[in-house]
Amino acid sequence: MSDIGTVVSTADVIICCGSGGVGKTTTAAALGLQLAQIGRRTVVVTIDPARRLADALGLADGLTNEPTRLDIGLPPESVGELWAMMLDTAATFDGLVRANAPDAEQAERILTNRFYRNIAGALSGTQEYMAAEKLHALHADTRFDVVIVDTPPTRNALDFLDAPGTLARFLDHPLFKILMLPTRRGLKVLNVAAQPLLRTIAKVVGGDVLADAIAFFQAFAGMETGFRSRADEVMALLRSDVTRYVLVASPRADTVEEARYFAARLGDSHLPVGALIVNRATPSFPVPAGRRAARDAALWRNLDELNAIAAAEHIQLADLLVDVADAATVWVPLLASDVHDLTSLHQIRELLFAPALFDAEMSAE
Ligand SMILES: Nc1ncnc2c1ncn2[C@@H]1O[C@H](COP(=O)(O)OP(=O)(O)OP(=O)(O)O)[C@@H](O)[C@H]1O
Ligand SMILES: [Mg+2]
């Protein structure tokens, strides 16, 4: 088993995953602070549309689809930086269309197409796919050494691992090739509608919708090669050893089960869990030997109860710890309050990277 410092400090990409509310966003932000502090130019990207990342970083103004550099009080000579952004699926898709269309007129034809407007923000899978595109762009961006991805609170959070492959399969699909045909053969859209397959589709989805879709694919023609090669590149990146998976769990039966599901899902894709963070754990305390004074009975009961809960949590985690035996494991205690400013975020960072130091402080108090 390695330590978390080694796992994250040598990564180019870190994916934080886990079930809802366990502390993925908090962890992503705390890892960002640590990496910036050790001199890496770090960008944290959240796919979660809730404002949690901005909240964790104590940013009142929120975040946008473009990385914003944060003032985390590093000394001026420091080379490390912390940036953060929130994925906007539709804006990312628009940006890709503008960047990849051969000219402004073709970009405009796509951007104003009704079919495109409907899929750009809403189609299931588009968000996962755009997250993969964003990761690709940030990884290639020379401003950053490392990209930390905070995934959304769903069991499907890891779908973006498959999204690029799904796109590649779609581009290879015969239907897609048929939709591209009109431009290739120089035929009019209406002629295509005469084909039996398209006639059937038109009956189901409506002729207008189909005409919009065909117009979209015509305008898209020629750009699919770029989308395809980026999809292949990001798939290779997600599978390479510069990408590390950090699984966040909390010691409750249901979230442990979810964490085991995520670990299994990563395992199915042959992706190792680099680190397991057991967040919001009940701290345990050493029990001093000797007689217990009667006047402190309530305090002793408290201590025994806390230690009993902590022991139960360790039992709860046992199977997961076996599942990810090769991962660096860190226990982070539940703090007295939520994490929504830099001070408490630093506290989490210290608990992650210098737990021994923190234990000593706690027992000295
Ligand atoms: N160790 C901790 N001690 C106290 N509060 C914590 C700790 N870790 C996280 N929190 C708080 O728990 C809440 C959930 O954390 P966070 O938003 O990071 O979870 P998440 O896994 O990203 O959630 P979601 O699945 O909704 O995106 C937040 O209010 C956060 O401040
Ligand atoms: Mg979150």
Model description:
This protein is an alpha/beta fold. The chain has a domain at 4-99 and 126-158 and 241-320 and 339-364: 3-Layer(aba) Sandwich (Rossmann fold). 55% of the residues lie in helices and 13% in strands. Strands 3-4-2-5-1-6-7-8 form an eight-stranded mixed sheet, sandwiched between helices. Helix 8 (163-172) runs antiparallel to helix 13 and helix 9 packs across helix 12 (207-220). The model is unreliable at 183-190 and 360-365 (pLDDT under 50). Adenosine-5'-triphosphate binds at residues 18, 20-26, 48, 52, 153, 279-280, 332, 334-335, 338-340, 348.
Keywords:
disordered C terminus; 365 residues; Rossmann fold; binds adenosine-5'-triphosphate; elongated; binds magnesium ion; alpha/beta
Cα shape:
elongated
Q: What is the annotated CATH architecture of the domain at 4-99 and 126-158 and 241-320 and 339-364?
A: 3-Layer(aba) Sandwich
Number of strands: 8
Mean pLDDT level: 84
Q: List the strand order in the largest sheet.
A: 3-4-2-5-1-6-7-8
Bound molecules: adenosine-5'-triphosphate, magnesium ion
Total helical elements: 17
Provide the gyration radius in Å: 25 Å
Distance between the termini: 31 Å
Q: How can the largest sheet be summarized?
A: 8 strands, mixed
- Reported by name, the CATH topology of the domain at 4-99 and 126-158 and 241-320 and 339-364 is Rossmann fold
CATH class of the domain at 4-99 and 126-158 and 241-320 and 339-364: Alpha Beta
Model regions low in confidence, pLDDT < 50 over at least 5 residues: 183-190, 360-365
Helical fraction: 40-55%
Please identify the structural class as seen in this structure. alpha/beta
CATH superfamily of the domain at 4-99 and 126-158 and 241-320 and 339-364: P-loop containing nucleotide triphosphate hydrolases
Beta-strand fraction estimate: 5-15%
Q: Topology as H/E string? A: HEHEHEEHHHHEHHHHHHEHEHEHH
